[in-house]
Amino acid sequence: xxxxxxxxxxxxxxxxxxxxxxxxxxxxxxxYGFKTQYHLSxxxxxxxxxxxxxxxxxxxxxxxxxxxxxxxxxETLSEDFCSLGQSLDYYQRLAEMPEDDRDYxxxxxxxxxxxxxxxxxxxxxxxxxxxxxxxxVLGEFxxxxxxxxxxxxxxxxxxxxxxxxxxxGWSSSVEFAFDAPQVPDTRTWPERTAGGPxxxxxxxxxVVIGRNGSGKSTLLARLARFAHASRGDRLRPKLTQLxxxxxxxxxxxxxxxxxxxxxxxxQVPGLTQRERRTIAAELARGTGRFIFCGLRDIxxxxxxxxxxxxxxxxxxxxxxxxxxxxxxxxxxxxxxxFARIIDRIRSHQRGPLLGRALQPILADxxxxxxxxxxxxxxxxxxxxxxxLGWSTGHKIVLHAICSLVAYVEKQALVLFDExxxxxxxxxxxxxxxxxxxxxxxxxxxxxxxxxxxxxLQETMARHVHIISREGAQTVIQRPAAETFGENIxxxxxxxxxLTSEVTDFNETLRxxxxxxxxLDDLEALFDTGGxxxxxxxxxxxxxxxxx
Length: 547
Hints:
By secondary structure, the chain is α/β, with parallel strands linked by helices. Helix content is 39%, strand content 16%. Keywords: ATP-binding, Nucleotide-binding.
């Protein structure tokens, strides 16, 4: 019988073995003389190799050494060992493993997230703080890692989500906050007992706006990489050269990027090609902590990359914001993906949440023909054929909101780039209502980059960040006045700086007035009652000044 846990040297390759075998690859990483780090991999029942992640394994009274303590195959470690995975992804991947295999490896490696009683035995060990916790703050890491491992998100305390992100080269960081003042309740007792939901101000969504090329999408892409990375990876030069996330130990249960732009070519999370390929495989299966909702076929993109033969080549690739190759999914691929998303909603009993999330969307007039039947069709019908029959806007809205219903967990972070893509403004407003509903019910958060005043109209000014360039400097500002509920025209001019001086109709009216030279004759050119009030005022002013 083959021993279930094989130990491999740093440059070694796994020996052929059967399914449900684990591999611990030694690592040359040295924590001030302690060598405790290994990389755990696993062959599943389909004989597919799965990379789980880095784990540090410590023995009581372990001395400093030039070599790893473990170098022979074994079935289980003795009681004088303990282990701690070094990333949230490690525990997410264990959670998605068959239960008997997961329980076996956690017990065999004496994992302290599963068995917290072991902590007291090792906290006084020199190698515990020096090595095992060198890149982990246990108080930050343990609750979220345990929740992810057990998939019991309801037990997770609510997160006071406030964090900053400083892009390299920017003069100041973007400070994201998602709270809002509590609304006082001055109703009489009979009015309160009459029922109805309490009013509250919009929260949970921060919005980033700015001109084309200001760095909005780059900000979201880098934020995805930092939010997904472990605390240790956030401190490595591969990421510190791109920016800084504070607090550095802030963890998210899941990071969900949403982008339906055909030109999106930003790097996905992962500092090495192996990590990125693992994430791509997880995306294809609909698993993992990073979820991508959009048109790109990230798995196909990474498959097309040449294998990096050196760590330096891998490091250089990690420093790039954009990938060289972009491959888009076909309509058939997207429809099959949509069907898998709906299957996940069904299997995770999230149908009721989907029904509530669809309410704002179905209220849009464009859904008149689908309103009565859509939910039932999604829960029981052929979703691939349904998807192929919808318009582009309906495909995007339903793919996005169903993905969020399927994957958002407590303490998840959603990064939505330009939700207005392909959407009529009223449908965009409905999508934002649905997004906020999912975030509220799941206790999660979103950062949205947009050019749309419709999104701002649904957002408080305290949650809006304006990115602008002043010479070589990038500056972060807040709107001068409240944006929530403001007139679209005022938002367009005051926040997006669209004024008559920069629009083409001004020059067209100027040429018309110069050529026609008579207001009545000019008005007669328009068959809907003449010029608008603003255009008429402009022409009258021009004619008066010219006369």
